[in-house]
Amino acid sequence: MTKARRVVDVLAATAHAIGELMLEVAPAYLDAHQAADCLALLCHQIGDPLDHGLASRRYALTGDRRALHCTVL
Protein backbone atom coordinates (compact mmCIF):
# COMPACT_ATOMS: atom_id res chain seq x y z
CA MET A 1 0.00 0.00 0.00
CA THR A 2 2.86 2.38 0.77
CA LYS A 3 4.35 1.85 -2.69
CA ALA A 4 1.02 2.63 -4.32
CA ARG A 5 0.77 5.88 -2.37
CA ARG A 6 4.28 6.84 -3.44
CA VAL A 7 3.38 6.20 -7.06
CA VAL A 8 0.27 8.38 -6.73
CA ASP A 9 2.36 11.10 -5.06
CA VAL A 10 4.87 11.00 -7.91
CA LEU A 11 2.10 11.15 -10.51
CA ALA A 12 0.51 14.10 -8.71
CA ALA A 13 3.85 15.93 -8.50
CA THR A 14 4.43 15.33 -12.20
CA ALA A 15 0.92 16.52 -13.02
CA HIS A 16 1.54 19.67 -10.98
CA ALA A 17 4.75 20.40 -12.88
CA ILE A 18 2.99 19.85 -16.19
CA GLY A 19 0.15 22.05 -14.96
CA GLU A 20 2.57 24.86 -14.26
CA LEU A 21 3.84 24.55 -17.83
CA MET A 22 0.25 24.66 -19.05
CA LEU A 23 -0.32 27.83 -17.03
CA GLU A 24 2.61 29.49 -18.80
CA VAL A 25 0.89 28.87 -22.12
CA ALA A 26 -2.71 29.38 -20.94
CA PRO A 27 -2.70 31.74 -17.92
CA ALA A 28 -5.22 31.40 -15.11
CA TYR A 29 -7.42 34.24 -16.34
CA LEU A 30 -8.45 32.16 -19.40
CA ASP A 31 -11.54 30.01 -19.04
CA ALA A 32 -11.44 26.30 -19.86
CA HIS A 33 -12.53 26.77 -23.50
CA GLN A 34 -9.95 29.45 -24.19
CA ALA A 35 -7.29 27.38 -22.43
CA ALA A 36 -8.19 24.34 -24.52
CA ASP A 37 -7.68 26.37 -27.69
CA CYS A 38 -4.26 27.53 -26.46
CA LEU A 39 -3.14 24.13 -25.17
CA ALA A 40 -4.24 21.85 -27.98
CA LEU A 41 -1.01 22.21 -29.96
CA LEU A 42 1.24 21.95 -26.87
CA CYS A 43 -0.51 18.80 -25.68
CA HIS A 44 -0.20 17.29 -29.14
CA GLN A 45 3.51 18.13 -29.27
CA ILE A 46 4.28 16.55 -25.89
CA GLY A 47 2.05 13.54 -26.56
CA ASP A 48 -0.35 14.25 -23.70
CA PRO A 49 -4.12 14.15 -24.26
CA LEU A 50 -5.76 17.56 -24.02
CA ASP A 51 -8.00 16.47 -21.14
CA HIS A 52 -4.89 15.49 -19.15
CA GLY A 53 -3.29 18.87 -19.87
CA LEU A 54 -6.41 20.72 -18.78
CA ALA A 55 -6.70 18.58 -15.63
CA SER A 56 -3.05 19.26 -14.79
CA ARG A 57 -3.67 22.99 -15.32
CA ARG A 58 -6.67 22.86 -12.94
CA TYR A 59 -4.56 20.99 -10.39
CA ALA A 60 -1.78 23.58 -10.60
CA LEU A 61 -4.41 26.31 -10.12
CA THR A 62 -6.18 24.73 -7.17
CA GLY A 63 -3.79 22.26 -5.58
CA ASP A 64 -6.78 19.90 -5.29
CA ARG A 65 -5.99 16.37 -6.46
CA ARG A 66 -9.64 15.84 -7.31
CA ALA A 67 -8.90 17.86 -10.46
CA LEU A 68 -6.93 14.83 -11.67
CA HIS A 69 -9.70 12.32 -10.99
CA CYS A 70 -10.42 10.04 -13.97
CA THR A 71 -7.78 11.72 -16.13
CA VAL A 72 -4.27 11.56 -14.75
CA LEU A 73 -4.99 9.55 -11.59
Question: Could you characterize the architecture of this molecule?
Answer:
- By secondary structure, the chain is mainly alpha-helical.
- Helix 1 crosses helix 3.
- Helices cover 71% and strands 0% of the residues.
- It contains three helices and no strands.
- The mean pLDDT is 93.
- The chain starts with a helix and ends in an 11-residue tail after the last helix.
Number of strands: 0
Low-confidence stretches: none
Radius of gyration over C-alpha positions, nearest whole angstrom: 12 Å
Helix/strand-derived category reads: mainly alpha
Can you summarize the main beta sheet?
A: none
Helix content: over 70%
- The N- to C-terminal Cα distance equals 16 Å
How many separate helices?
3
Which descriptors would you attach to this protein?
about 70 residues, mainly alpha, 3 helices, elongated
In short:
The chain has helices at residues 2-25, 32-46, 50-62. By secondary structure, the protein is mainly alpha-helical.
Compile the SSE list and pairings.
Elements: H1 2-25, H2 32-46, H3 50-62
